[in-house]
Design a protein that fits this description.
Radius of gyration: 11 Å
Mean pLDDT: 96
Shape: globular
Largest sheet: none
Oligomer: single chain
Number of helices: 4
Length: 76
């Protein structure tokens, strides 16, 4: 597995944020974590990604599997 870059992580986070239909259901807490993550870098972003991953476990979307993979492969 290759490590994800910050740019890839932020693109994945934007994919999560683009699913506005799921905001009140499977993404209710993840939305705020994602919005905060867009302004973070380095270790701070790495920690925030863990919060996001925990809060998108029930998210169903055509890109959900790829988003989770990118986020899981982000290590600082």
């Amino acid at each position: 597995m290759t490590k994800s870059t910050e740019a890839e992580v932020k693109a994945a986070i934007n994919t999560v944020l683009s699913d506005t239909k799921a905001y009140n259901t499977s993404l209710n807490w993840a939305v705020n974590y994602c919005k905060a993550a867009l302004n973070m870098t380095g270790h701070e972003l790495s920690v925030q990604v863990l919060y996001i991953l925990n809060n998108i476990s029930h998210w169903r979307h055509p890109e959900a599997k790829n988003v989770r993979m990118v986020l899981k492969n982000f290590k600082i």
